[in-house]
Amino acid sequence: MEAVFDPSRRTPGPWAQRVMAVLGAGPGLSAPDPSRLILWLPCALAAGAALYFALPGEPPGWVPRALLAAGLVLLAGGVMLRSRAIALYVLILGAMALIGLAHAQLRTERTAPPPLEVTGRAVSAEGWIERVERGGSRPRLLIRVSWLEGADTPPRRIRVRAGLGDFAPGDGVRVRAVLNRPPGPAAPGGYDGGRAAWYDQVALTGYAVTALAPADVETGGFSRWLAGLRWRLSQRVGEAAGERTGAVAAALLTGERAGVEEADAEALRLSGLGHILAISGLHMALFAGGVFFAVRLLLASIEPYARAHDPRKPAALIAILAATAYLILSGAAVSTQRAWIMACVVLIGVLIDRRAFSLRSLALAALAVLLISPESVIHAGFQMSFAAVAALIAVYEAWMRVRPAPEGRPGLIGRAWGSFAGLTVTSLVAGAATGAFAAFHFQRMAAYGMIANLTAMPVFTFWVMPAGVMALAAAPFGLEGVFLYAMDQGLRVVLAIAHWTAGLDGAGVMVTAADGRAVALYAFGFALLTLGLGAARLMGGAVTLMALALWSAQSPPDMMITDGGVALARFEDGAGYQATNTRRARFAATVFLQRAGEGGARAERAGLACDALGCAGRTSEGVLIAVTGSPEALAEDCARADIILFEGRASAWRKRRCAAILLDDPARAELGGAELWIRDGRLIRLRAANDARRGRPWEV
């Protein structure tokens, strides 16, 4: 009989064996396990979306459509062939990556604002207040626009710094404000407010020049009503709970974090408890789980019903509805969306008698979030949220495979010890999983996060959130006061722990910013660790160590020049980074110091030698920096200085004849701020803040 070629029986080569190990091949590496393939689909989709944001420019409009068509064809072909050949599995993952890249660009097109003429002068606008963001002398108001002076089609949203007065979210207002495009990053690699605003559909930002006035705005509907409801509920919570803790309670119940005091927020971050402010898996699990068990207990207590029906199923259905209401009320942030999807998958598993808390359900949640908002792949919240849950599930599944069979029912001490051990392991695993991603994004690690979480999380889990769930349930009847008081007392304990931990020596460990390549390599290694099996996990550990080694080998820049004409460097006869001017570009200086691993420090003014025409100073690297606004001083500075910060526009003739690096106002605006690496008095590398956004839609 003639042999029939079967790709799944072909002896794999060494590289194929490695890939199959990653995909979860069975014994002997005969073929990858199809049930593990779904775990890698969101990884491939995320990789494609991340690649889009890493591109040096925006691809032409036909590219995403061609890639999407190719990806869908390849994906459909792979599914229809039903082969277990390794090449086919890699093909499917490649198709998902193409779909991810295309989907991210198409999402960018869908969120584009209408054409707007930005003049920098004051214009009038009408709309309704969607959100209030505290900070600075006046709050920032996110306004859903119905009319904008001079615009044929008004943008969806604008953000205006203005006094709130007697207005509240949901109210129609008229404002006259100076509006401009959202700003880019303050430093290379920093947070790009313009890109974030693009996907939030905030076309313009600025400040009001008149007080808010009431306006008759017809648009809004349910979203407008919900914004008002969230604000009123936040105010009620704040008034009933307490002056400080009320703002934290409102953040936990409605997602409104505007009122949280900066000192409390900073203490929570330094202590490693900052995650409690973002409504995520823990909050949703406690909320939906509390509703589920309460309804189940109630139905089980009705003996005739409990004998005829399974009380778990109606309890699961009611818990899904409650979780959905919590999602809508809290503002539906990415972390909350992921948590809601996970909760729904678990509860649907109860409805169909399936165990659903698994890596597969997490993969479905990740796919859903990425399809809704592919830009979330580059956000810290998305990365940390999924990393924590993936690590916890992977550790749990590994423990279930190797744990010894229990001998009888544990006693009270045994159950207490099991709860403590579970909480300890959860804190360790979640902290380890999110620590690196937090350091990548915020250049800070909580040294005593383990202590803070072990002491505060039992209070939060068994006291604060149950009281919050009961408060929300009782709020429609006006009976929430007693539960908010209980919530207030619990939050006082949590905040006391946070402030105590944050006050310990070395509580916040500062690190330098990571290069994008190190972050991508670490993410790949982490995926291997949590999703792979056997040798793949060893490979993942090696890859994560390589990423950390690459990160540690990076040297911080020797100098930063802001677009406002301020240089930060280590000058002679000075300790640490010093600034040529401490009154200007304070925010950019703060961002630079944070990314250089010196967050929390303030740049002192450098001891420059000054005369009537300008100032000059030499850095520890031997670079002479001159700062001047006088054209008469340029000739001398060009002859003796290495870098000149000129306040104004230098002539083209002077730029051609200047031996120094001459950065006038237009040149600095083009760079958007720059980091410089210097060796032996020579510039070896310059990275501009605008390099990463040049040619992208959010650059304009």
From TrEMBL:
Sorted UniProt keywords: Cell membrane, Membrane, Transmembrane, Transmembrane helix
Highest taxon in the source lineage: Bacteria
Domain DUF4131: 62-207
GO cellular component terms listed in the entry, alphabetical order: plasma membrane
ComEC/Rec2-related protein domain segment(s): 252-532
Protein's UniProt keywords contain Transmembrane: yes
A Pfam family reported for this protein in Swiss-Prot or TrEMBL: Competence
Keyword Cell membrane found: yes
Major location (coarse): membrane
Membrane-spanning residues: 37-55, 62-80, 86-104, 276-295, 315-336, 357-374, 380-399, 420-442, 462-486, 493-514, 520-551
Membrane topology type: Multi-pass membrane protein
Compartment(s) where it occurs, according to its Swiss-Prot or TrEMBL record: Cell membrane
NCBIfam families given in the database record: ComEC_N-term
Protein name per UniProt: ComEC family competence protein
Source organism of the structure: Alkalicaulis satelles
